[in-house]
What does this fold into?
Amino acid sequence: MNRILENSVFRDKRYALLLEDLERTEHDMDLAYKKLGNVIEPDLIDCYIYEVQSLQMRYRFLLNRVKQIEDSYAKNPLEASGS
It folds into this structure.
């Protein structure tokens, strides 16, 4: 039973870190869009397009990981609640 609680705590920490990283990535994506909207130099336009695409891929990855953890909580609510 103690091992279940340890796994739950580990998941909660991992979940919190993922949410923080997801929020940070969303903020970085907003900044990249703003930068893209303020440049006229073709090389910088390309640079910010790649940056936005990279951040979008990272955001999708993190969002999928968050959903996986949430799904695992939904499948076993007793383990998620620590009971």
User: Anything to note?
Assistant: Helices lie at 2-37, 42-75, 77-81. The chain has one domain: 2-81.
